[in-house]
Amino acid sequence: MLSLEEDLNPHALWHKVEIDILTGETTILQSDIIYDCGQSLNPAVDMGQIEGAFVHGIGFFMHEEYHTNEEGLMVSNSIWTYKIPTIDTIPRKFTVHVVNSGHHEKRVLSSKASGEPPLLLAATVHCATRAAVKAGREQLTRWDKLDGSAQNSIWMSRLYYPL
C-alpha cells in the first residue's frame, strides 16, 4: 500500500472563464494543465486520458444535475434533461503538458494514473466560474453561496436576483 506522500500526483492548472451576465452563458476561454504522469508508458494514451477525463469532469461539474421524482426514480435521464458535454464545453484554447517525473519504484513500471485525477481537476473550472460570478456581482452588497450545478439558469439567478 502506498503512503500519502507516494500516492500524491501533483498537477498545475490555470483557467480563463467568461460569463455573459445578460444570458448566464459560460465560456471557457483557456485551460492550461501541467500533469505528472510519472514515467509514461504511452504518452499518446496518457494525453487522450487527460484531455477526455478533464472534459468529462467539466460536464460533471458544470452541467450535470441529478433530479428524481417522488418515487425516487431518476427523471434527468435523457439528453432533453441531462446536458452532456458538447464541442462548446471544450475550452477554446486547451493545452496539456505531460511531465515525466522519472522513476517511482512502488508504481507499475513507474507510471501514474492519468484517467481519474483529471476528472476531479475539472472542479477548478467550476471555481473559476464562481469567481467570474463574484466579479459580476461586485456592485451588490451580499454574496451568495454557489454550490451545485453551473447551468445558465442557476448562474442567472445568482447574478441578478436579490438574495
Automatic annotation (TrEMBL):
<feature type="domain" description="Aldehyde oxidase/xanthine dehydrogenase second molybdopterin binding">
    <location>
        <begin position="15"/>
        <end position="91"/>
    </location>
</feature>
<dbReference type="InterPro" id="IPR016208">
    <property type="entry name" value="Ald_Oxase/xanthine_DH-like"/>
</dbReference>
<dbReference type="InterPro" id="IPR037165">
    <property type="entry name" value="AldOxase/xan_DH_Mopterin-bd_sf"/>
</dbReference>
<dbReference type="InterPro" id="IPR046867">
    <property type="entry name" value="AldOxase/xan_DH_MoCoBD2"/>
</dbReference>
<dbReference type="GO" id="GO:0005506">
    <property type="term" value="F:iron ion binding"/>
</dbReference>
<dbReference type="Pfam" id="PF20256">
    <property type="entry name" value="MoCoBD_2"/>
</dbReference>
<protein>
    <recommendedName>
        <fullName>Aldehyde oxidase/xanthine dehydrogenase second molybdopterin binding domain-containing protein</fullName>
    </recommendedName>
</protein>
<dbReference type="GO" id="GO:0016491">
    <property type="term" value="F:oxidoreductase activity"/>
</dbReference>
